[in-house]
Structures are given as C-alpha cells and as structure tokens.
Amino acid sequence: MKAKYLRNQSVTLIFVTNQLQISVRRDVFQAISDPIRRDIIDMLTKEVLTVNEVADKFEISRPAVSKHLKILDECGLLTINKQGRERYCRVDPESLIPAFLWLEQYHQQWKARIDAFADFVNESKTKSENNDQSK
Q1: Helix count and strand count (H, E) for the chain
Q2: What is the DSSP string of 1-41?
C-alpha cells in the first residue's frame, strides 16, 4: 500500500515538474544574457547555419550548444527549420527590437553622464593648470 502511494506521489511530482518547465516564459533578455548565445546570434545574423555548423564553432559540447539554441528558439530569436536530415538555424532580427529599445534609453542616460564627467574633468584640469601658472 505504501509503495503504491509513493509511486503515485512521484508520478504527480514528475507531472507537476514537467508542467512548470513548460510554463516558464523566456524572453529576449534571458537570451542575450549569455555570451555564447550572443555569439550564436552574431554568427547567425551573417549566415544561416546548421546546428552542427554552429556547434563546430564552439569549444563546448554539442548538447550544450543545442541547449543554447533551444533557449534562443524559445525566446523567439531564431527559428530552426528541418530540411531532410539537417536542422537550419536562422535569426529573426525583429525579435531583438524590444532589447534595443530598452537599451537605447540607458545609452542616452550614460552618454549624458559621461559627457558631464568629461566636462568636469576638463574644468578641473583647466583650474589646476591656471593655479600652476599663477604660482
């Protein structure tokens, strides 16, 4: 009786775990957070490659590359089309637009801050040079 109860619990746990994995929503920021995935995106913007061709360009295992490709696919950044025995990967550049728009606002902020810092440094340098000349 106890074995049947434990088996039912483990089946329920497996089912719930599988459902949770399916419901995890991935987004573009999760995709670009990893340097290998950014490299894959960069490669695939230049040309369409098979999964094996992508894997050959990295010194990590093929299953690891496949996992990165799966995440990129789940995020909607690339599509994988099967043609015969090969699976071809193609980037969908439009899917990167939300990330670019989000980053652009911070680019403008940091540009303004860096410009203000450069002005401060130049003013300090000028004051220091004036003080040295007046001595």
Answers
A1: 6, 3
A2: -HHHHHHHHHHHHHHHHHHHHHHPPP-HHHHHTSHHHHHHH
Residues in the chain: 135
- pTM metric for this prediction: 0.63
Structure tokens at 72: 């990129």
CA distances from 43 to 11, 71, 101 (A): 42, 16, 22
Tokens of 123: 């003013």
Contact 26, 71 (CB under 8 A): yes
Distance between CA atoms of 15 and 33, rounded to whole angstroms? Answer: 29
- What share of the chain has pLDDT > 90, as a percent? 50
Tokens of 77: 């950044």
**What pLDDT score was predicted for residue 89?**
96
Measure the CA–CA gap between 32 and 30, rounded to whole angstroms: 6
The tens digit of pLDDT for each residue in 60-119 reads: 999 999 999 999 999 889 999 999 999 999 998 888 888 888 888 888 889 999 999 999
